[in-house]
Specification:
2 domains, 17 helices, globular, Spore Coat Polysaccharide Biosynthesis Protein SpsA, Chain A, 7 strands, 7-stranded mixed sheet, transmembrane, alpha/beta
Length: about 550
């Protein structure tokens, strides 16, 4: 409105107070064909947005049910701690494997009750690096006693991560199985904080909260951290406190071995084998715990291509798991609120293809709605917008307030970029969701980790950088389309829509340009690693 040539008062009078052409608008076939799908999409997105508000409500309503690491319902006797196996599934992780093994070997747990399995499916220099590090820690050296660590290398890679975990389980001695991905650095007290919660015989899995080693590496990693914090505070927190199903995140958690067996073991027919096993275990009666106050640091992707790879894998995997598991959940005798929460959880990524539809319809719908009058827009469009869009900012602001009560207000600066990044992921994640819906088997690209914490430590990044394809160009083209809608909105003085449209421009251009710039650096160096063709690809 500040762009209005004759001031805000004149703009309001001519656009909203002038009754000259009132009641002259008439519906027609074209408007109907545009607005019906537009409102269907908006209503569906609004339901998913309302669900975010519901998670916030569940989180606070059931605050008394929050599990604390130092308040287990029961404890193992000091001399009767159970045997724990630590599994470290890795694939081409030469830059982070030493950091991981060092952290695991410094865990504070009796060595006669403890073993480490390095489950290596690598096809590059990681094989020599990892085997050498394992041999060194097994033999011991000044400052480090010999460790109960075993190196297992597979060449067939059957089942990928799920297959590696299953192979390790066959020779594991532990009654309890902790799992850490290659980029995690658990603190020494982690096992002791978790193990006593299994003194309750019905507990089958305990998940802990991810934190971020390189949160301040770049603006992008700060945004990524906020996105993950929302998941680990409000999604896990809200679901676990309400007593409904939630999932193991594939790492930084511990399983009761008996639970894995009773649930049917690790299966590799989805990309998210962790969520798949989680639902199967809870369906047969096991209870899960989430310890929000137990932190386990990990590395965030530092490049847009790596981040999009990670997000697409999660999006596709959850839809695959939904297709596999939801029919069983809905037919079960679980409470209706558990079934409803499972539905929202496993189908949430359907919002990405809906965002594509919304992107196509937004400009014609905006033109049509401007002719129908501001009362209808305030009564219909505004509530839908508040439900579908504003819930995103509320969700992440609340999660930051919980984690950082003194500095959470700084998150306001990131909110537009959080929303824009969500928009920018639409193309990549829509492709992943559609592949899952139609059962398309696709190549899998792992999320690279570089052991970086600050700027200037990325020279090794091109070794594992991914191919770009046409997606960044599509993102830039769609960004240009929305730039045209911004221009149209300004020229027609429809200023209320401009901030919303700018989010689309920023999101698509940001993800597209970053992907292309990183690809330019790749062409100067190595060509990167080839993608691995995998039936039902499952990776680290």
């Amino acid at each position: 409105m500040l762009l209005a040539p004759k001031g805000i008062g004149h703009y309001w009078k001519t656009h909203y107070a002038d009754k000259t052409f009132e009641h002259l608008y008439r519906w027609n076939t074209f408007d109907t064909a545009m607005l019906i799908p537009y409102f269907i999409v908006m209503v569906i997105l609004a339901f998913y947005g309302i669900h975010r508000y519901q998670l916030v409500w569940l989180y606070y309503k059931n605050k008394k049910n929050a599990a604390k690491w130092d308040e287990p319902e029961a404890r193992f006797a000091e001399g009767e701690l159970p045997f724990v196996t630590i599994q470290l599934p890795i694939f081409n992780e030469q830059f982070v494997i030493e950091r991981l093994i060092e952290a695991i070997c410094r865990l504070d747990y009796p060595r006669d009750r403890f073993e480490i399995q390095v489950l290596d499916d690598s096809t590059d220099e990681t094989v020599n690096v990892a085997s050498g590090i394992v041999a060194r820690y097994a033999a011991g050296f000044p400052g480090m006693d010999p460790q109960p660590i075993l190196y297992l290398h597979r060449t067939n890679r059957y089942g990928f991560k799920a297959g590696a975990l299953d192979e390790g389980l066959k020779v594991a001695k532990g009654e309890f199985i902790a799992i850490f991905d290659a980029d995690f650095v658990p603190p020494p007290e982690w096992v002791m904080q978790v193990i006593h919660h299994f003194a309750e015989p019905q507990i089958g899995m305990v998940q802990t909260r991810w934190t971020h080693l390189n949160r301040n590496y770049s603006f992008m990693t700060q945004v990524e951290a906020i996105l993950l914090d929302g998941h680990f505070v409000l999604e896990h927190g809200g679901r676990s406190r309400a007593g409904v199903f939630f999932n193991f995140n594939g790492t930084a958690g511990m399983w009761r071995r008996e639970t894995i067996g009773e649930a049917g073991g690790w299966q590799h027919d989805t990309l998210t084998e962790d969520t798949d096993l989680s639902y199967r275990a809870q369906m047969v009666g096991w209870k899960f715990k989430y310890l929000q106050d137990v932190e386990c640091p990990a590395e965030l992707p530092i490049e847009m291509t790596a981040f999009k790879t990670q997000q697409a894998r999660w999006a596709k995997g959850l839809i695959q798991t939904g297709k596999k598991i939801l029919p069983r959940v809905l037919k079960s005798d679980q409470p209706w609120h558990t079934k409803l929460e499972a539905w929202y959880h496993l189908t949430a990524n359907l919002s990405y293809p809906l965002m594509i539809v919304l992107s196509v319809l937004l400009m014609p719908a905006m033109i049509i709605r401007s002719w129908q009058g501001y009362i209808q827009m305030l009564l219909i469009d505004l509530p839908l917008f508040m439900a579908s869009t504003m819930s995103v900012s509320t969700f992440y602001l609340v999660s930051q307030k919980e984690l950082f009560p003194r500095t959470w207000y700084k998150t306001f600066l990131y909110v537009p970029f959080l929303m824009a990044l969500g928009v920018g992921l639409t193309i990549t994640n829509t492709k992943a969701v559609m592949e899952a819906l139609f059962g398309i088997k696709s190549a899998f690209a792992r999320t690279p980790k570089y052991s970086v914490k600050k700027k200037g430590e990325r020279s090794q990044a091109r070794v594992y950088r991914k191919r770009l394809g046409i997606v960044p160009w599509i993102e830039l083209a769609i960004g240009c389309y929305f730039a045209a809608t911004v221009w149209y909105a300004i020229t027609t003085e429809n200023f209320f829509t401009v901030p919303f449209l700018l989010l689309f421009v920023l999101g698509y251009w940001y993800t597209g340009l970053l992907s292309l710039l990183q690809g330019r650096f790749e062409r100067r160096g190595t060509t990167g690693q080839e993608l691995h063709e995998k039936p039902y690809p499952v990776g680290i």
